[in-house]
Structures are given as C-alpha cells and as structure tokens.
Specification:
globular, 4-stranded parallel beta sheet, 16 strands, 8-stranded mixed beta sheet, 20 helices, 35% helix, binds FE2/S2 (inorganic) cluster, alpha/beta, 580 residues
Amino acid sequence: MTKKIQAGAYQGFNKGLTNYGDTGFSTFLRKAFIKGAGYTDEALDRPIIGITNTGSSYNPCHGNAPQLIEAVKRGILMAGGLPMDFPTISIHESFSFPTSMYLRNLMSMDTEELIRAQPMDAVVLIGGCDKTVPAQLMGAGSAGVPAIQLVTGSMLTGSHRGTRVGACTDCRRYWGNFRANEIDEQEISDVNNQLVASVGTCSVMGTASTMACLTEALGMMVFGGATPPAVTADRIRVAERTGALAVQMAKAGLTPDQIMTEKAFENALRVLLAIGGSTNGIVHLTAVAGRLGFNVDLKRVDAMSRETPVLVDLKPSGQHYMEDFHKAGGVPALLRELRPLLHLDAMTVSGRTLGQELDDAAPAFKQEVIRPFDQPIYPQGGIAVLQGNLAPGFAIIKQSAAAANLMEHEGRAVVFENAEDMANRMDSDDLDVSPDDILVLKNIGPTGAPGMPEAGYIPIPKKLARQGVKDMVRISDGRMSGTAGGTIVLHVTPEAAIGGTLAVVQTGDRIRLSVKERSLELLLGDDEIESRKRALDIKRPSAERGYKKLFLDSVTQADQGVDFDFLIPESKKGSIPTQS
Ligand code: FES
C-alpha cells in the first residue's frame, strides 16, 4: 500500500511526513485522509505539484486566478503530475492597510512555510499584484523546492472621451489635473470607471509589470510569460505550459538556487534598467537575492545603469501600455536587443539556458514599442543611485521619468515631519513654498510609517498646482508606485525614524541634487548635522505585540530589501553585480 520513495526522483505524498515514530503509519494515515477527497492510489503515486491560490474578492488584480488554476491543472495532468492548489495570503495595493509592503514579508513566510509543510515536489506560484510576486520568490527561494512563477497578467486599457487610459499612471495624471482645477467633478468621476478596464495587474510599467519582466529574466517563468494580458488566450496557454514545466522540474529536482544564480540576478537587473522599471524592483530584487545569499551592490548597479539604455517605451517613462509590449514581442524581443549584455548560460525553468530559449524565440518584426539598442528612449538605465551626506547609505531616482531641468538642482527645503503633517499642511494657501523649493517628507521609511509606504510621490502643493507647476524635486525615505513619475528621490537610507541625516533637515536648509554626479547633499557642516542628531536622541520604533512588533524589531533598511533580518541567511555567496 505505501509507495517507496524513489531514489533521485520525486517524493510525492511521502514528503514531509508527520513523525509518529513509524513512517509506514504516517503514510497510511496521510493517504487515508486525502482519499476522503476521492483520490485513487494511482493519482497519489504521481509527482505532486502545489499551486498557490491567491484569488481573493479583495484582489481584482488576481481576478482570473480560477481560470489560471484550471489551466495549470490541465498542464500538470497532461504531463503526468497531480495538482494540489492551496490558499495563501493575497495582497492588493489598495486593500492592505497600512501599506502592502508591511505585509510582503508575512506573505513570503506564509508561502515558504506552506511549501515546506505540505507534500509537494514542485510548486506553481500564482501572483501578480505588486508585492505578491516578490513575496512568492522570496518564500520559494528559502523553501528550496522546485518552483515556477505564473503571473496573472496585465489588465486591459480603457477609454475616456477618446483618450486611452490605464492604471495607474493616468490615475495620477487625471487626479493632478483635478487638483489643479483643470477638470471638474463629473470628469474625474467618469474617468474613474475607465482606468481599470478588466481584471489583471496595472497596465503600465509599474511594479507588477516590472516584477513580471524581472522574473522572466531571472529564468523563473515560462519564456514569454511576463506580458500576455490577464484576459487573453495567450495568458491561459502560458498557465497550461507552466503546469507542464512544473512536473518536469519536479522530476529533475530543478530547485530555485540552480536558477536564481548571480548571473540570473544580473540579467534581471539589466532588464530592470532597460524597461525603465519601477524603483520598487530594486528593493524586491534585493530581498529575493538576499534569500539566496547575495548582497546587491548598488554602486555597481549604478555603473550597470550607465551602460544600459531604456529600450521599452511604456508609461510612466514612455508612451505605451503592457498589451502593446506583448504585441511587440514582449520580454524575448527585449532580450534579443540586450543579448550582448546578458549571461546567456543562465539556467531557466525549462531546463534550458536563456541563450537556448532566445535562439528559438520568434523572429524580430517591425514595431514601435521595443527600441533597437542604438535608438533608446533614454540613453542610460531608468534608475540612478545617489549618495551623499543626506543619504550616506544610498537613495535612488527614476531618472527616465524625471524632469530634465530639475536633475541638477539646488533649493530650499520645505519639510514635512511625517505623512500626517504633510496631509494637514500641503494644500493650505498659507504654505510657504515656491516652485524652486525642494519638498522633504520624513518618517515614511521601513520602520517610520511603518512599512515604507508609497507616499514618496509627494503631491505638488495645491497653490502651485493651480499655477501650472507639474514637477518639483521631492525627497523622502519612502517608496513610490512604479506607475508614478517626477523628479522624486526615494529610499533615502538610513531612514529618518532610526536617526538618518534626513531626520535633521529643517525648513530653510539648502539641498543640492546632482543626478549627473549621483549626489544628494544637505548643505550643512558635519558638526551642525551631528549636533542636531544628538539633540533629537532618536530611538528605533517598536510595538507592544504581534506582527507589528515582529516587523519593527526585525525589518532591515532598503539596501537590504526591507526583509526581516532573521529570514536572510548568514552565509553569503557574494555580491551582485559581480562586475561594474
Ligand atoms: Fe495590483 Fe497595480 S494595484 S498591480
């Protein structure tokens, strides 16, 4: 009755047995229970493929999860495996108070422990909305079981009075117009119905799309699997293929550490820079790499950025939407342009190298979304890494979505102590602010808010917006949505809440930003900065109980991925990128 584990092959239902001191009895008991669902011994002898079900009424970005699970199961059964779907935490950006980032590590722990606890020879990770894919890759990387990522795919674009619109770059644009009294209540209400035209993830190169593209470049996804929109036949076919590959991976024992190597992470960083990807991509990739034992060296990332042009013309850096990127050939077409810069021998979920996958990719054709390498939409990578006395660790700016005339700028700081202070004063006609000032927002870092919310997209003060001001230099220790743009400095490290230099900036101080020199300076002497720090006497925030206590006591800074310190392995394999 009890099947012996085959040496070197899958373990199926014999994996991770509860220990009663009698292995045969443990197997007997487990099979008795699962047979309550009507399974036969023949079904239970197959490789078991887990499928994370992150469908939720609170998560329309995963609204197609039932159809994807059905297609994944079909692929698994066709390849000789047994599919077993199971629920995990699901996170949507708009339904995760205080912020989705606060829950990312919890989802990664949930994913890791359920992969570990339940018998499965491989797992299909179905995610999509911003924090879900990094959480799943982090969890799977730590669990060490063969894993393959499937994303839900992007939503369709809508149409408002003859203009094509999509979440959420256009959400911000229309809201900015409303704040500036350029459109009325009726129009802002009308466009609200059009911005999210179907289930699926945001239709621009926001964090979800960025993470989908990075995952394909990492080799953790079906080749060509990042870009098919959520409601298309292509997306369902990717799901079926994902299921079949999961069975193949289970049989081969192809674990995440064999795929997510330093070469794979470098390929992913190239793609992040070339797509003008979300600044959140840096934090998430750092967290995933951390689970595999790699540090991300941001100075080397910046050097990489200087030689990697932005080639994909998508909002917010460019013009188009994800469905256009897919029709233009998707990530394989981009990788063809980047080929000389890639590690082609990196392994992928198919058991073939990236180079082999590229060799078999569809031929190039004329299109306008993915530029040739020598005709970029921006000559350097989308993200620049800054340092200086205001950001001794680092800070970043999405230079491809910033205003050219503000990238070399010195101005007077107008300081908000926290998000509440900003909300209370930002729209006041009494706010002392001019277009040349630099807006500074403190205490929205990993421990400050907590959870490093996407409040770094500081709005233009209403009195200036009404005068037609569209952009200003803005600085914070928080993040911003990948769908946003502007001359916005983010991830200032160390954050204000643990006593970084940002904590001592006062209204009236002068700050200099130079993207060319990669510097961010508070124009004060070291003695003055140290004396202000001593006067503040800041203590790291904590909480009395529960997940908030775990979070505040354990969360790392942005340069370590905002992961929990106890989830990052102590033994290190090295730094990436390996070369600048
Ligand atoms: Fe889910 Fe944008 S809100 S991807």
